[in-house]
TrEMBL record:
CDD domains cross-referenced by the UniProt entry: Sialidase_non-viral
One Gene Ontology biological process: xyloglucan metabolic process
Domain of life of the organism encoding this protein: Bacteria
Protein name per UniProt: Sortilin N-terminal domain-containing protein
Source organism phylogeny: Bacteria, Pseudomonadati, Bacteroidota, Cytophagia, Cytophagales
């Protein structure tokens, strides 16, 4: 009876797709592969009592858990959950998780961009949202969560956005903090565009029933804009509660019924950016460490500063400055690479002027200057072992050391993670004079091209955390996480492992934050496929992942232009010459070679520029522009003819168009092997958005185009015969106004995905054309991708994506083994199953599927039902 029930649930009833949760079949399980990390990660949290368990919330909409100190990770979002935008899939970019000290499995967390509260009863493996709690919290974002260590019925929440380091900033005009973007905040004449509150209100809440209901216990008289930086409960006197805020330090001795603000306490500014507490169980004493905002202060034609690192040994009654030797001296400050950040961010953004204006106002370098540090942490088993972050990637400070350390409670500071040419070059003697080691002490593993690439590291990190027994430190830097097991003496990037020393074949840890793009196969190639990637060039699969973990899929990174001179680039599409598998082309949608077609004739070992599609500088500042160029296709007969698409809107979920004044969207063609291009849009809808082009494998002179439309602006399916110059509309069943994907099966059937989110189930979903007749085989309002197996055309995969507004109940991947008669949902293991950018069935390995995702990299699955 149970077995038949499971079988019945496995078969999808598309009429109930918007009304009933559909569980995925367990016979298809997706496993993440490819490089780990590979994108910014501002959220790392260790479990407070389990030294092996850690949580990460990278910025591409992911959340992960590791139970082996970061050796491997698992996704902790619900693969079968509803649309991403509903936040019902779990804690997206997990934020501030806290766990009971009586039951290590019970915990509460929130997320970065909303006040949603989630509960776990299995140590964070799975989470459930509590909507009733959200209403009680007034739609105000939660910044910190703390449980009473003696009673897990009692919890505290504090509001704020201060840990959102990409959007929350401190400036000369707004020293207590302002919420906006790095481009707007601090730029002369643009402060009017900044939302300084972002709906924020200073709040502290308390629950006495394990988080089911909450009471507002906010200190009376607190400035409404105050960010609650962190809350602490005294482990020996749990009625004593502490709160560090951007408007001072507060203490309650009656569980939050009343609060006292500690004034004239020794801090310069009373703007607490970060805070940590050490508790000595034997003496029952607490020690606090805090960062009071470092302010840059005009002093004639130079500047001075105040604020910095503080320590309190009397529960916050008084504070002592322990900056000691942390400030950088003039000799190091004059380093040209440091000067650039000094004038652009430390002074320019802080004072709200341009870098040029800052240099004119303050041309004289100060004798010494403190970094505007942003986070402090104390080792939970050693009160003298401290870490301080100088986040010059996101905040208004300057380079020259990004992770500071003290081994003696702040009497002496030194930079504990070092990479860059100037540690043992220009500045070596200056650092040695400070008793600061200069040896490069980080092993980048899979990102080895970063080693000593710049004078100092190009990007800093935002977060460093000790595990519960102080034996391991995790620090996020640039696009990866580094781990130290020797107090910070040495660091290892452990997001991936090499299958064999020196071969550069990588198995990821399972915490990818990589923007996946197109997946490219070729029937002539049996041992690998290609994977296009945002910010990470191209990967190709290898067959030796088992050397790291059983069943693991490994990849090799193809560097452009070559391994000796790798550039950071974003490849959106590539194509393989039908006559030569070593001859390939690649298109780049941002970063290096943006707007440039690149070519290789040796299988990807060396690349060279071919033709230029557009000049990025013609449309604005190219630094952060994004113009997608997709579905590069080579004419199967006249191989010097190339075609691709530049869409303004894409049906798949990925970064939006940010191309400034660029307007030349549509279908591009080259008739000279990619040297020059023209646009061939005649006959296509004027405001349509071309999504896909594909040659008919039977009638090789026919090129088809899928055009996305709306109920007001019709798209459709279009055909261009190479002997003609105008696209002709292909007849479709009445009501289909938007087409998204085109696929030709091995048995000469044509498939399209179609629909609009506000349309009818009759006019969307998946359609197949056989002998000129169309048939709907997924009766649903919307589908995005489709593919079939080369070895068995009855095997079909299709994707239904998230909708940004409607909150779809069952987005994801669907599979049929009987040519579309019956379907099963196959999301198991894939935390971004609702945001699939590419979907493929291996041409040669039966039952092996691949997909690329918006921001969780690549997944591979083995279908147990395919033999």
């Amino acid at each position: 009876m149970v077995t038949s029930l499971l079988i019945a649930q496995d078969k999808v009833d598309f009429s109930k797709l918007d009304s009933k949760r559909i569980e995925s079949t367990p016979t298809v399980k997706w496993e993440q592969f490819g490089p780990g990390g590979s994108g910014n990660n501002y959220h790392i949290y260790w479990h407070p009592t389990d030294p092996n368990t850690v949580y990460q919330g990278p910025n591409m909409g992911n959340s992960y858990r590791s139970t082996d100190k970061g050796e491997t990770y698992e996704g902790i979002m619900d693969p079968d959950g509803p649309s991403y935008k509903t936040r019902r899939r779990g804690p997206v970019e997990i934020y501030a998780p806290e766990f009971s000290r009586q039951d290590e499995n019970f915990g509460i967390c929130t997320i970065e961009d909303a006040n949603f509260i989630y509960f776990t009863s299995d140590k964070g493996k799975t989470w459930k949202i509590n909507d009733l709690v959200r209403a009680q919290l007034e739609n105000i974002h939660i910044n910190t969560i703390k449980v009473d260590p003696t009673d897990d019925n009692i919890w505290y929440l504090g509001s704020g956005n201060i840990r959102d380091s990409n959007h929350f900033f401190h400036t000369y005009k707004h020293p207590h903090g302002v919420f906006g973007s790095k481009k707007k905040v601090g730029v002369a004449g643009q402060n009017k565009d900044v939302n300084s509150n972002y709906g924020h209100q200073a709040r502290i809440w308390k629950s006495t029933d394990k988080g089911q209901t909450w009471k507002n216990i906010t200190p009376k008289g607190i400035e409404t804009k105050a960010q609650i930086t962190r809350i602490f409960v005294h482990p020996d006197q749990p009625q004593t509660v502490f709160a560090g805020t951007t408007y001072g330090f507060y203490k309650s001795e009656n569980g939050g019924k009343s609060w006292k603000k500690k004034v004239k306490n020794g801090m310069d500014n009373d703007i607490i950016r970060s805070m940590d507490m050490y508790y000595d169980a034997s003496s029952k004493k607490v020690i606090f460490y805090a960062i009071d905002l470092v302010k840059y202060i005009p002093n004639g034609n130079t500047i001075t500063y105040n604020g910095g690192i503080y320590k309190s040994e009397d529960e916050g009654e008084s504070w002592v400055n322990i900056n000691s030797n942390m400030p950088i001296n003039k000799a190091i400050l004059k380093n040209p690479s440091i000067q650039k950040g000094y004038y652009k961010f430390a002074l320019g953004k802080w004072f709200g002027v341009t870098a040029k204006e800052a240099k004119e106002l303050y041309p004289k370098a100060p004798n010494e200057l403190m970094h505007s540090v942003s986070m402090i942490r104390v080792n939970p088993v050693n009160p003298n072992h401290l870490l301080v972050i100088n986040n010059y990637k996101s905040q208004f400070t300057f380079p020259g050391g990004m992770l500071w350390r003290s081994d003696d409670g702040g009497k002496h500071w030194y930079v504990t993670l070092r990479n860059g040419k100037d540690w043992n070059g220009r500045d070596k003697a200056h650092w040695e004079a400070r008793n600061n080691p200069t040896k490069i002490n980080v092993d980048w593993i899979g990102q080895d091209e970063w080693e000593e690439r710049d004078p100092y590291d190009r990007k800093a990190g935002a977060v460093a955390e000790f595990n519960s027994d102080g034996s391991t430190i995790m620090y996020q830097v640039a696009k990866v996480v580094c781990v130290s097991n020797d107090n910070g003496d040495t660091w290892l990037e452990n997001d991936e492992k090499e299958t064999k020393a020196g071969n550069h074949h990588w198995v990821g840890a399972g915490n990818s934050n990589l923007p996946g793009e197109e997946i490219v196969q070729d029937e002539r190639i049996k041992d690998h496929i290609y994977l296009c990637a945002g910010e990470n060039s191209i990967f190709k699969t290898t067959n030796d992942g088992d050397l790291v973990r059983k069943g693991a899929q490994a990849v090799y990174k193809i560097s452009i232009p070559n391994k000796e001179n790798p550039k950071e680039c974003s490849v959106g599409s590539m194509a393989i010459d039908p006559k030569d598998v070593n001859h390939m082309y690649a298109l780049h949608f941002r970063q290096a070679y943006f707007g440039q077609l690149m070519e290789t004739k040796d299988g990807g070992q060396n690349w060279a520029p071919k033709g230029r599609i557009f000049e990025p500088t013609d449309f604005g500042n190219p630094l952060n522009m994004i113009i997608h160029q997709s579905h590069l296709r080579i004419d199967p007969v006249e191989t010097e003819h190339l075609y691709f698409v530049i869409p303004k809107k894409r049906v798949v979920h990925n970064v939006k168009f940010k191309g400034g004044k660029f307007k030349d969207f549509g279908i591009y063609r080259s008739q000279d092997g990619g040297k020059t291009f023209d646009i061939i849009n005649q006959g296509l809808p004027k405001n349509g958005h071309v999504q896909k082009i594909e040659f008919d494998p039977e009638n090789k002179s026919d090129l088809y185009a899928a055009v996305m439309g709306t109920t007001k602006q019709e798209g459709g399916l279009f055909l261009l015969n190479k002997k003609k110059s105008i696209w002709e509309k292909v007849d479709l069943p009445k009501g289909i106004v938007s087409v998204h994907d085109i696929h030709f099966s091995k048995d000469n059937k044509m498939y399209i995905t179609a629909g609009t989110f506000d349309g009818s189930n009759k006019h969307g979903g998946l359609w197949v054309r056989t002998k000129g007749q169309w048939k709907q085989i997924i009766p649903y309002k919307f589908a995005s991708l489709v593919t079939t197996a080369k070895y068995n055309s009855n095997i079909i995969l299709a994707a239904i994506p998230s909708d940004d507004t409607m909150g779809m109940m069952n987005p994801g991947i669907y599979r049929s083994l009987d040519a579309g008669k019956t379907w099963k949902k196959i999301n198991t293991g894939n935390i971004q199953s609702d945001r699939i950018n590419a979907l493929e069935i291996d041409y040669h390995k039966k039952g092996v599927y691949y997909c690329s995702t918006y921001g969780a990299g690549y997944y591979i699955a083995k279908d147990e039902e395919v033999k």
